[in-house]
Amino acid sequence: MGTRVVTAHLPKELAEKLDGLADLLDRPRGWLVQEAVEAYVGLAEERQRETVAALREVDTGRVVEHGEVKAWAAGLVRAKKAPATRARTRVKRAS
Known about the structure:
mainly alpha; 95 residues
């Protein structure tokens, strides 16, 4: 696989953080930039795939009505506010 030079202007503070991290990890700055760009592009591609899949589901009528979502969310709030209960166990004492 070939490479290509890409230039980007970074805010001074971000560039300083990048330099510090490169020193800390004993890696070249370019290696860190490549890792970061690969991670970002991977996330963006996954987000796009998930968005397209979700839109296909909407097109086929696979949706949840707003009222159902509100009821589900309200149930989560109620469950969170309910006091936690501990299970009681009986301990047998030796006679």
